[in-house]
Design goal:
By secondary structure, the protein is of the alpha/beta class. It is built from 15 helices and 14 strands. The strands form 2 sheets. Strands 5-4-3-2-1-6-8-7 form an 8-stranded mixed β-sheet, with helices on both faces. A 6-stranded mixed β-sheet has the order 11-10-9-12-14-13, sandwiched between helices. Helix 1 (61-75) crosses helix 3, helix 6 packs across helix 15 and helix 10 crosses helix 11. The protein is globular. The two termini are 13 Å apart. The model has no long low-confidence stretch (mean pLDDT 95).
């Protein structure tokens, strides 16, 4: 069984081709800067080590997908009919979660939530439409990021608005980054398989990030809500704010609702708090080291928020056995890990500073006498999606 997993961004396309019998990546690659005057295609054959790179114009995702399929036929597949399915790490749909064949009905449910996932759903819908045209006989399967969080209890996922609005309009806390949280929590459970009633805080931290309270392998709470706009700050999204800031900016400061929406989802987060330095934490860290006080405060605010979530989730679970960091920031920023855990010694969290500074994926960075184990993990969302797609295909066969 060969499964192609695609990750679609507004201006990018990434892919991995899996041989599921051995869960082996045969080849991978992607396209950057879709829609720009000059884009970049790159590919790697994981069997031979051969790599390819090309600069070209990719006006839409259709051209990017076509280039990817050409490469797969040249260096991975003898025929597109070898593909058992194409799987997607899709984000959000109204009233739909789990693993689904991407039927017209499911795609419409995704479109119904375009307004709460504007940076994610429209690009995916556009790309999936192109896949349908280019691969009309190949099943398309979506693994929704909200799926892992379907185990949350009502007291965690309901908002304090009139219940009839919650029920009528499907307004609730959904949570995202489910494939990453699932992978990391399973990884920790395997390492700590002698720990009964395992209580874990999973920290997926990247350009977009969220935290999750995981008890016995199940999500019981998470930091993102109906949208990806809340929780800890993101690269250019605001995270948790008082909702009346919106009304104040519109009613008293003369901004339009559209201007406020653009500000909150594209000009806030690291970018906004640093005074426009960058939406990339690495640039913000360099600016802070060079004396930029706004950049330094942005980092401190980010880590302070992570620390608060860890503490609140420990309270919600009645204890804490482990913390795991993944995602681009969680995996690579020793500064963020150290600042986020500083002051949590009262919970039994004791970080080994030397191990933290030199951490690689798959290591324990806690001190030997730490009651709470701290891990850094290379999360593998694509493998989780491939496994789920394969399971659905087997169920249908």
């Amino acid at each position: 069984m060969k499964i192609l997993i695609c990750n679609v961004g507004s201006t990018s396309l990434k892919y991995q081709l899996f041989a599921m019998e051995r869960e082996q990546v045969l080849c991978s690659g992607g396209v950057e800067r879709v829609g720009a005057p000059l884009g970049r295609f790159y590919a790697k054959n994981h069997q031979t080590g051969a790599q390819a790179e090309q600069s070209a114009n990719f006006p839409t995702h259709r051209e990017a997908i076509s280039r990817m399929l050409d490469e797969l036929l040249a260096d991975g597949l003898t025929s597109l009919e070898e593909l058992s399915c194409v799987g997607f790490k899709v984000v959000h749909a109204k009233g739909v979660s789990g693993v689904q064949f991407l039927t017209d009905d499911v795609l419409q449910k995704m479109a119904d939530f375009n307004s709460v996932a504007p940076a994610h759903n429209p690009p995916y819908l556009a790309a999936i439409a192109q896949f349908k045209e280019l691969l009309p006989q190949t099943p398309l399967i979506g693994a929704f990021e909200t799926a892992f969080h379907q185990t949350m209890p009502p007291e965690a996922y309901l908002y304090s608005i009139p219940i009839e609005f919650s029920r009528k309009h499907a307004i609730r806390r959904y949570g995202f980054h489910g494939a990453s949280h699932e992978y990391m929590s399973n990884w920790v459970a395997d390492v700590m398989d002698d720990t009964p009633d395992l209580k874990l805080v999973s920290c997926h931290l990247g350009g977009s990030g969220s935290l999750c309270a995981v008890r016995n392998g199940q999500s019981i709470d998470t930091s993102m809500g109906i949208s990806l706009q809340c929780g800890v700050m993101n690269n250019n999204r605001c995270g948790d704010i008082d909702p009346y800031i919106i009304f104040y900016l519109v009613e008293a400061c003369g901004m339009t609702l559209s201007e406020v929406k653009t500000m909150l989802q594209t000009k806030s987060g690291f970018y906004g708090m640093s005074g426009g330095v960058s939406n990339d934490l690495r640039d913000v860290e360099r600016a802070a080291e060079e004396g930029n006080d706004d950049a330094a405060t942005a980092i401190l605010s980010y880590c302070y928020s992570i620390k608060k979530y860890i503490g609140s989730y420990a309270a919600a679970m009645g204890g804490l056995d482990a913390i795991v960091f993944g995602g681009g920031i969680g995996r690579h920023s020793a500064t963020v890990r150290a600042l986020s855990l500083a002051g949590l010694e009262f919970l039994g969290v004791r970080l080994d500073g030397e191990k933290n500074r030199h951490a690689v994926g798959g290591v324990d960075i806690s001190l030997p006498d730490s009651k709470v184990r701290i891990f850094v993990v290379d999360t593998n969302e694509e493998l989780v999606v491939a496994r789920k797609a394969a399971a659905l295909l087997r169920l249908q066969s």
